């Protein structure tokens, strides 16, 4: 599974609509409205490298109200939450 973190600048008056539209794009798992230099951060999770272009360049960047995207591809995940879920699959407490 490949994970990309996409920083998104959006038109100020359309941020909620842009976020909602991006959540509908297959491959987008979460969209966060954030403070700071960007308006939104989207998490994209796909199985193959070529799918990143389909999701980010062909879909997310073309959502009405998206002004600019900047993408970071994750090499490894370091998350206590994710590790706990992986070890708990199929097990009952």
UniProtKB/TrEMBL annotation:
It comes from Cellulomonas fimi. This is Lrp/AsnC family transcriptional regulator. It comes from the Bacteria. GO terms for biological process: response to amino acid. Residues 6-77 form the Transcription regulator AsnC/Lrp ligand binding domain. GO terms for molecular function: sequence-specific DNA binding. Pfam families: AsnC_trans_reg. One of its GO terms (cellular component) is cytosol.
């Amino acid at each position: 599974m490949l994970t990309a973190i996409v920083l998104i600048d959006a038109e100020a008056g359309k941020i909620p609509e842009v976020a909602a539209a991006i959540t509908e794009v297959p491959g987008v798992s979460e969209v966060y409205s954030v403070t700071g230099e960007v308006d939104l951060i989207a998490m994209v999770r796909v199985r193959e490298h070529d799918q990143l272009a389909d999701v980010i360049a062909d879909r997310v960047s073309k959502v009405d109200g998206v002004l600019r995207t900047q993408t970071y591809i994750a090499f490894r995940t370091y998350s206590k939450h994710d590790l706990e879920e992986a070890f708990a699959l199929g097990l009952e407490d």
